[in-house]
Structure prediction request, 934 residues.
Amino acid sequence: MTQVDDGSAPTAVGANWTRADGRAKVRGELKYVADHPAGRVAHAAAHRSTRPHARVLGVHTELASQLPGVLAVVTGADLHKALGDRMFTGPAFSDQPPLAVDRVRYVGEPVAAVLAIDPATARAAVDLIQVDYEDLDPIYDVQTALAGTSFVHDELKPSAVFGDLRHLSGQSATNVCYDYSLVDGDAQSATEAAATTVSGEFWSPPVHHVPIELPCTSAWVEGDRLEMLTTTQTPSYVRQTLADMLDLPLSRVRVRTAPLGGSFGAKMYDRLEPLVAALAWTQRTSVRMAANREEAFLITTRHGVEVTSSMSAGADGSIVASTADVRYDTGAFADVGPRITAKSGMVAPGPYRVANVAVRSRCIYTNKPSAGPFRGFGVPQVTWSHESLIDELARARGEDPAEFRRRNLLREGDVGAMGTPMHSADFVGALDAVTEAIGWNSPLERPEGRFSRGRGVAVGIKAVLTPTISNAVLQLNQDGSATLLISTVDMGQGSDTIMPQIVAEVLCLNGENRIRVVSADTDVTPYDTITAGSRSTYHTGNAVRIAAEKMRDKLLELAAQYFQVDRSDVGLVPGGVMNARTQEVRTHAELLHAHFGARGTTLTTESNFSTQWQPYDKATGRSPKVTEHWFAGAVACQLLVDRQTGRIVIEDMAVAGDVGRAINPRLVEQQLTGAAIMGVGHALFDEMVFDQGQVVNGTLLDYQLPSVKDVPRKLTPIVIESPHRTGPFGAKGVGETGIIPVAPAVANAVRDAVGVRITRLPLSPERVLDAMTEAGVAR
Amino acid sequence: MNQIDLTVNGRPERVVVGDDDLLLDVLREQVGVTSAREGCGVGACGACTVLVSGRSVSSCLARAVRYDGADIVTADGLPVDDEVVEAFVDNGAMQCGYCIPGFVLMSHELLRENPEPTPDEVAAHLEGNICRCGTYPEICAAVAAAAASRSAGAR
Prediction:
């Protein structure tokens, strides 16, 4: 009788496996993209526009070309000659050139590129390039953009990615690249008839992701193929984009990734990749481009958003109406702004039962760096509005803000204003957990004098991106270890840890450190829509589960053959298979060795998991299935406001998220606390400051990020589990859940502490003091 | 150009550097150490931290030519049983992991100067390092655990 591993399987799901490569990360041995040797390459740098909006009349490259060590200088016109209009890329609109062709649209847009023998020479040479401009009317904000006297793009050109944008094709004389409306009932009449109405003008500024790893892309031509190693969350998208741009079959474009040093949405879609690919392909050379921090601030941002909104209650305390006019500043290129505009607009009323809803959500071009996805996908900005309003509505009615929310929150099976039912979205559980954790119902000590104490709470709702596609290929190695091929990119969220846990659970493998996830490589790993939107645990997790179940079926078939019994007489046991008749056990290694007659062999299965949706109704913006599942989160906090300086100190914060089922509870808690800490930055100080379209605080000396000293004195993550009926073991993602309600929870606590409602983020000391002065509150 | 001698993780290295070459670039490109990384280029994030004779240096601001003869330690050169590394691993003090070597080296510097730091002293010493994933609670727990494990070992 063979000894079977007495490993932890099949209880891998729910276990706190140590993070894959954890030790290598701590020792700095894990290689990120820029840590891979570059070899003999041409180093690229970009000359960037100094004008927010201008025609390019001429680009003078002679001096740069003559600098010793310069290999080539390439302009937008050069690329256009080589690639034609295929050089314009983008996930929603084909509006983004790798180098400006005849017009620049923001300060910092690449106009020409230098290839040189080292980065210093490339950077020196770009300063020698001169550009002749003819200024056009610049658009610095959404109000000017909506006034419509100047246009960022002459014509809207939807790319093929979003089917629902086709109707915009060819439209001109507009800066609005997406206009989503949600209508349910008659919000106007209901608002007029309501017992209590509160309203406000809310502002969330543009902020930056600032993953500490900087963007870095290398590309080279090998025979008739383009190969690339790059910092991206979207390798499958990048391959398609480069294939389209270079007019190559997908098989001749290879995009590789390495683990990312953080991303949060920054490293998605079209960043450095189109430019580096175009340079490598047209110059037939190996090219490496590494952005510095100042450049990284120009590559993408989070949308600054204005919301004009109202919320109304009936005499019975129900919410009878909610309205919102939401305006996303998407900058010079749409990026994925249209999708953000719709997905966030549809939850602008919040996670509440609301009888009448009217939302308009627009995506608007301006002459600023492009805004794209950022942890929360536009939802934190509308949550800032609805969670501030509902707090005021509760106060106007003389009710406890938590209890008022609780009564009106959506429950399991309730249909939200957007038309889709709730499932596995325990808003009430999350609210109760966070309020209990900070002692909401215990008496609050309100000191006299300089420091005022307050408590606040907020709840958030977000849909997972739908429809999307994930695939997985699983190789079970003869020794019982396994190799998993997926295109999910681990950027700190822990996918390289939890996907193996799913495999181990299904296959009864003792898998910790024995199941390897291959870094996404489009030559090797199968298509995956994106690693973003908290979608991987559910979607890729399901693909991995299915691949593992197919592997289980294969193993049982082999076991039946081996023991010469019926299939129903064999079963998996930890580490192997068992003949149920004789209790005889064989390890995976023994079974596979017997089957193949060789060591080192592999057994392979593959799978697909795709989700479907029903598109928005054209008239109402509603859909009975707008998403595959929901994220439900809540944050409560207690803080002190220094009435003399305006400084806020968070004493206690609790953050809860309904994750369906935690595959790895410790990693889930890390996502919740990490998101809360990032959210504290957004609440208190994160802000990109622009002066006439130019970023003026785009360095880490000027742009403040949360440090260890900004962590709440007490921070409690709470995992809520209401299993999803089709999640892998009931699980859903968690990357964004925690960040969504942070800023309004903080502002609601400030309101509680000093009696002032602040509607513009961040809650900097100056803003707190100004708001107190304006409201006539004693300091 | 200047020829300088360094000791990096106990191994002698002879490199040729220009007057403006940064220690970070020399370590990465000539010595082949990639655990020190650029995050900001202005000494504001700590991802490029190295220890020189036990003291932390932001190698993205340091001109290599001034470090002739220096004894440099980077995170990948720490002993295999290093208590700080063990404590970080045990406490799950990493998410994306990019900044963590800098925190490990800062923790080494702290514990050498102050073997039993209070939580406030830990925060004060690590304040200049940025972890955008927000792993600070786990990092602080790891430093406390490393301090405890060292003081237990010393008894």
Q: What stands out?
A: Residues 376-465+628-774 of chain A form a domain with the Aldehyde Oxidoreductase; domain 4 fold (CATH 3.30.365.10). Residues 539-563 of chain A form the longest helix (25 residues). Chain A touches chain B through 52 residues (CB under 8 Å). The first strand of chain A starts at residue 42 and ends at 48.
